[in-house]
Amino acid sequence: MNFVASIRPPQAPTAGRGDRVARTREAIIASALALALAGEVAPIVRDIAKTAGVSARTVFQHFSDTAELYVAVLGRMLAAVVGDLPDLGAAWSIEERIAAVTNQCSDRCERLLPMWTFVETLQRRSPNASDMVGQMYNSNRHQLAICFDRELTAMPPESRERALNALAVACAPEAWVVLRRRLGLSIDQARDELRFITSAVFSDGSARG
Q1: Which position has the higher pLDDT, 8 or 74?
Q2: Distances, alpha carbon 102 to alpha carbons 69, 81, 106, 114, 160, in Å
């Protein structure tokens, strides 16, 4: 199953009371997401309700508790930043594919960066959130396997798994957090480092054919 499709919320009803309910729910999720993006690790209901223009009671009419709301927020964010890689045809060189992958990875991770503390905290507290984040990693690893299938297939099985694991680590959000927040690199610098790390997986030439 496509990861984005699996976490995208169902389509809202098209008319009547269901329409109003859906709009209110969307406003609550959008408000909580805005607060998370602003750095709130655990946005409080009072602030969420105020931003959404509803009462705290209304929030709990749509969500059984804050954990359910936070999981909905996480799903919305992951759906926005996770998607299939562009169609990298056989004519693309490995350098072109590395550039495409690292550009998309850096764009996704930079969008996720402001709320990464929220994501880390939530996945420790919620099995549902942990499963969603796990799906993100599995989806990314699968896409990398497809993108670099030509090079990975040319490797011995043990080397193939290690190379794919290294690629998955390099393109994980945590790696971007280290580059941007711990090392203090700019977006362009971090992207260049990510490209260097990804290229190093194939630097011995064994996968270039």
Answers
A1: 74
A2: 32, 14, 6, 19, 20
